[in-house]
Structures are given as structure tokens and as C-alpha cells.
Amino acid sequence: MKVHVKNWHAIAQWRWDTGASDADDDGEGDVCGICRVPYEGCCPSCKMPGDDCPLIWGECSHVFHMHCLLQWIGTAASKQQCPMDRRPWVTAERKVAKQGR
Amino acid sequence: MDARLRRVNKEISDCKNDKSSNISIDLVDNSPFHLIGEFDGPEGTPYEGGHFKVDIIIPESYPFQPVKMKFITKVYHPNVSSASGAICLDILKDAWSPVLTLKSTLISLQSLLCSPEPRDPQDAEVAKHYMTSKSSFEETARYWTQAYAGGSGKEVRGKGRADGPRDEIAMAGLERAHVEKFQAMGFDRTKVIDVLRRLNYRGANVAQINDDKVVDELIKS
Fold first, then answer.
1. ipTM of this model?
2. Which end of chain A is more exposed for a tag (fewer CB within 10 A), N or C?
């Protein structure tokens, strides 16, 4: 059976609060530096974005898909460092979502 | 779709859309995991005017493993093997990070051409040449750029343009007078060039190496 969508009506949209403002957008959009898929998409091993494929924040302020970052940290080559700044990776406590998003 | 395939395809199309970096990435055959990257030699270096090609292999576990790159175009540089094109650069080895991309890695290669690291050489003979006489090294690097990288750069002093028959002496970074001196003793020209290159018979080194040492090496070779 084939289904053709004739019409759809969005009632809400969501976005991860990465702390970056739209002004920081360098035209590339907010993508995970490891898989290059938007944060709001999911990592390559997941099918469903959102809570099943969350983001992870480092103390250093860098953000990745959690699964991507854990896969990198799991390799010996990573030396347990953040891929962006090579500082030892320390997971930050989940930030409290800012108001007004 | 395979994560590696998705990321590589995205990188290739991003690079095609970006005209400002002057870096191109193209498929070799139908596989996106074997590519050729190309960039121009940086201005103000002996590689200026040259166009350099790099062989790119995307490993199975990319981007968690570094991309494999080597020069296809022959390059005279302390961190590039003059024979195989193999490259000594930290980010291609243990300093790799998955946030690096094909484009950023090619830009790093371009900047490696600007700033050789002779203390961490890939080609020890070229590195010795660089440390003995930088001006002689640069002349040779310029000659190679003209001969191999299609450089239309300035004429190399006293050696003419490199697009005619290649001058083996200029290629080895030696002085004609030195080669002719040992040739006059009856040694074969190719052997003389080979031995003098191995001994790094250049600049201030010439005074350190006496003729007997050279003759010894020539007899052994």
C-alpha cells in the first residue's frame, strides 16, 4: 500500500538547546562535528531523533551526538580527548534549558 | 545509508560548492572511498605556480581513523618522500580527530608546503639538503615544481626552464661544477650524481667532505 501525503499541518517543532544563537550559524547549520548530521537529526546508528539519540555536552562547551562522541572516546586513537580542542573529555552536567526558546 | 558513505558524499559536495578555497576533490573510479584531491602551491614558496595532486583513501572506520593521503605529484620537501609521495604530518597519524575533513586536511597539506619541519623528516636526504643550504634546497624545490607540477614559475637561476629534457643535476640539487669534477676522473655521471646526493655535497658541507671520501664511495657504488 502506498500512502500519499496530501497535506500536513505542523503544530510544534523542537530544537536542541545547544547554547548557540542563530547568529553563530556559519551557514553550515548546527551539525555534529563527527557525523556532520544536524543535531536535530540522529547519529548514523539511530533511526529516531530526539531522546533516543541525545546530545552530549563537554565541560569545554563542545557538543556532539552522544553516540558519535562515545564511539570516538572508545577508540584508542582518541586518547579520551575532545575532538575539537584535544582537551581531556569531561562530560558536563546537562544544562538547564534556557527560557524563551 | 552507511555513515561513512553519507559523510564522504557530503564532504565531496561541500567542497564542490566552495569555490573560495581552490581545493578540488574528485572520484577516481565509481567508489567515493578513493579520491583525488588537488590544490595549488602556496604563493611565496618554491611550490608557487605548481598544481599538486593527492591520492586519498577513505578507511573503513572513517572518520574515527585518519584518511590516508599521499602526493601523486612529485614534491621536493623534507616531509614528503621524494620517491613515494608518502607524507609525514601529525594529523594523518596520531593527531587525527574526527572533526577534521577532507578539505581541512588538504588545506593542512597546503600549509605544510609553506612550513617544512626538517626535524621530523619523511625524506632524510631532502631534510639534510634543507638544513645545509636553504637557498639551494629552494632552488631544487622550484625546479621540481616546474618539472613535475606544471609550474610556470620564474626561471631557476642558471638552469633554464625545466620543461625541456630534465636536468639530472638540478633535480638532485647539486652544482654542475662538482659533478663534472668527478666525472672528469672517469666516473659515470649517474653514479656521481647519486653519490654526491647521498653525501649531501652542498653548501658548507662541500668543504667538510674531502675528495678521497667521494672517490671511496664512487668505487663502492
1. 0.76
2. N
